Amino acid sequence: MTDKLKPLREQIDAIDAQILALLNQRAKVAQEVGHVKAETNAPVFRPEREAQVLRGVADRNPGPMVATDVQTIFREIMSACRALEKRVTVAYLGPVGTFSEQAVYQQFGSAVEGLPCASIDEVFRATEAGTADFGVVPVENSSEGAINRTLDLMLGTTTLISGEVAIAVHHSLMTKTGNMDGVQVICAHSQALAQCQVWLNQNYPNIERRAVASNAEAARMAGDDASVAAIASEMAGTQYKLGVVKGHIQDDPHNRTRFAVIGHLQTLPSGKDHTSLVLAVPNKAGAVYQLLAPLAKHGVSMTRFESRPARIGTWEYYFYVDVDGHVNDAAVGKALAELKDQAAFFKVLGSYPVSLT
Ligand SMILES: C=C(O[C@@H]1C=C(C(=O)O)C=C[C@H]1O)C(=O)O
To answer: Where does the record place the Chorismate mutase domain (predicted)?
Structure first.
């Protein structure tokens, strides 16, 4: 057995030496890129370029490695290379252990400075003020729909959306002991309670449910008090030394949340992009139909349509629209120019590479 392993391990050692040399060769080139950018004050993080590199390695991957695993590795390589230019700071809805934090690593790799914030409002403030280079905010969940606070804050922010990232959201029921003995209350963020309500009604109909600021906060509370159970990610459970009573309790096994990356960067076209807009129309018959006609006319497909009350006491709405393509694409540019002419309110939130997942 060991005789057979020895030469194979020697091969792996030799390959590792080559990988290590190549990684550092790549890092030196990234440092040079950093010097060029510093001369022109250009932004360090280029989401469109990173998206192209990640799509490229998946397309060219000969196997047997799985394409998504190759992307995970290259995401980390780029993260480490980028950190040699500058370590970017990214604000997110904390505390440590939230799905928002997971989304930060999914987008930026692990060589970033995470800045946990107490609320979505604070993520916007920190990014607007430049305390953070970027912010990551939840936009919509596949089970529960839009994250209204984020949509409302998008209206007035000076930041732009520079990227999107979607992650699978798996909830676990966890306690200090790993069982439900003596548990009097199940705590989680209101979104997580909603995403697990059928399972909770079936399994623990008589235990009080309490909404708290975040799932990670629930996990922290459960770590302090054996009468509290938390619904959170297993990552948060590990953070606060919890035992899993039951994993994957979300009602939809394919539950996902999409996040927006906000910042001051106008992302360039990556070849596969989305553009997000907010529109309002005068309150009259056929107005929405007419408003969207320019999209059809220029062959631009709409990927999302969401409405929010304008909160001025009348039945008026803001419409949040995502379309395929980048503002610099000719067809999108023409459609948006016509939309703008008709709309009572018009704001481009940003163009950015379509999420890889
Ligand atoms: C090296 C660059 O800077 C960053 C690092 C990248 C990389 O390691 O491939 C890609 C884009 C940037 O976020 C670059 O802009 O090319």
So the answer is: 1-89
Helices (H), the chain: 2-40, 47-60, 67-85, 99-108, 120-129, 148-156, 190-195, 197-203, 215-224, 234-239, 287-297, 330-342
User: From atom 7 of ligand 1, which residue's Cα is the shortest distance away?
Assistant: 78
- CA of residue 159 to ligand 1 center, whole Å: 22
Distinct helix (H) and strand (E) counts, the chain: 12, 15
The answer as to CATH 3.30.70.260 being correct for domain 273-353 is yes
| Coil vs helix vs strand at 61 | coil
Residue 354: closest CA among 292, 288, 267: 267
Instruction: Look up residue 28 and give its two tokens.
Output: 């030196």
Residues annotated catalytic, as ranges: 257, 259
To test the pocket of ligand 1, the residue of 22, 37, 49 to mutate (highest count of ligand atoms within 8 Å of its CB) is 49
Per CATH, the number for 172-246 is: 3.40.190.10
Residue-wise pLDDT for 47-88, tens only, equals 999 999 999 999 999 999 999 999 999 999 999 999 999 999
Fold classification of 2-85 is Chorismate Mutase Domain, subunit A (1.20.59)
Q: Which atom of ligand 1 lies nearest, measured to the CA of 26?
A: 8
Please check whether residue 45 is in contact with residue 88, taking contact to mean a CB–CB distance below 8 angstroms: yes
Residue with tokens 């390589």: 77
Q: Do domains 89-169+256-263 and 172-246 have the same CATH topology?
A: yes
Which CATH superfamily is 89-169+256-263 part of? Periplasmic binding protein-like II (3.40.190.10)
Cβ 166 vs Cβ 256: under 8 Å = yes
Torsion, Cα of 304, 305, 308, 310 (10° steps): 120
